[in-house]
Design brief:
Elements: E1 2-6, H1 13-26, E2 33-37, H2 39-49, H3 52-59, H4 64-67, E3 73-78, E4 81-86, H5 88-96, H6 106-115, H7 118-125, E5 130-137, E6 142-147, H8 153-164, E7 173-175, E8 178-182, H9 191-196, E9 201-206, H10 222-251, E10 255-260, H11 274-298
């Protein structure tokens, strides 16, 4: 049983799309399980459908308005680099309306429903493949995995949305009596879950470099500090997930093929830029191609 696992990573998910495109279109890998966290959860339904060009066009065209119904920050360019500053008016408006978060992401839920039709959902639900998204249950202090087999259309679209809600910048969702947030807060790279569900070969796309190559600039405002803190915590969670995944794989005789980003793509994955994301998608495809060519050169019997 082969599984495709895509980690969280915001706008960096474009790179994952390129890698997945190469694995599925060029290497002809057939997956029984698609498992995603956060941005990964946005990709997996369309990858399972084989609608790769469709999701590439949609994914690389999103901007802040596509995601946020109330965006809590503004993008500023300083010394040629994109940084974020607080949109004080939007944040205050959100708090005045009784929200617990700085911003709201209801536009993303609308986009998910517009992109994944009811008919496509039914095709996926009746297929043998399983599609699973990761969410964090803050009320019960647990990570939960939501399979398409267990839900109707509206609920599953909401679980995809919840998996992507990077609180406190995006919507905190109350569902089934609990508060839910981004799946990456608990499981950035759900390799362990894939193996628990029977995967013997896992292709894991990790939207981070294998070795830390980052020296963050000093924080200029509270939002920059918050994003740096969350990035640090998610990086620790991600590396712990990978260690646990390797341990579980060893105990179950499973194989993990890792696809890390070769370079640091961005220091702020909440910034969505069409040109950059299009380049990242293409670079993901080229990277997967190069990696597999190198493996084939080393081991002629390497699976292609």
């Amino acid at each position: 049983m082969r599984a495709l696992v895509i980690s969280g990573g915001g706008s960096k998910g474009a790179f994952a799309g390129g890698v997945a495109q190469y694995l599925m279109e060029e290497l002809k890998y057939k997956y029984d399980l698609f498992l995603g966290t956060s941005t990964g959860s946005l990709l997996i339904s369309h990858l399972a459908l084989g609608e790769i060009e469709k999701i590439k066009q949609v994914y690389t065209s999103v901007d802040q308005h596509s995601i946020f119904s109330n965006c809590p920050f503004i993008i500023q360019k300083k010394h040629g680099m994109d940084t974020i500053g607080i949109n004080h008016w939007n944040v205050l408006k959100n708090f005045y309306n009784g929200s617990l978060t700085f911003g709201e992401s209801h536009n993303l839920l609308t986009l998910i429903r517009e992109t994944l039709s009811l008919e496509e959902f039914r095709v996926l639900k009746n297929d043998f493949k399983d599609i699973v998204v990761t969410v964090s249950n803050l009320s019960l202090n647990t990570v939960e995995y939501k399979s398409i087999k267990d839900f109707g259309y509206d609920d599953f679209c909401e679980w995809i949305w919840i998996s992507c809600n990077y609180t406190p910048f995006m919507t905190l969702v109350r569902k089934d009596g609990c508060e839910y947030a981004d799946g990456g807060l608990g499981s950035m790279v759900p390799i362990e879950e894939a193996i628990k569900r029977g995967a013997t070969v896992v292709d894991a796309i990790v939207l981070q470099t294998e070795i830390t190559h980052l020296n963050r600039l000093p924080s200029k405002n509270p939002f920059a500090l918050l994003t740096s803190m969350f990035a640090f915590m998610l990086d620790r969670i991600e590396r712990q997930n990978i260690r646990i995944g390797k341990f579980v794989a060893n105990n179950h005789d499973a194989i993990i093929n890792f696809y890390y980003t070769p370079v640091v793509l961005t220091t702020n994955s909440l910034i969505f830029d069409k040109d950059k994301m299009t380049k990242w998608w293409d670079s993901g495809f080229a990277f997967a191609q190069s990696k597999n060519q190198q493996l084939s050169a080393i081991d002629p019997e390497h699976e292609t």
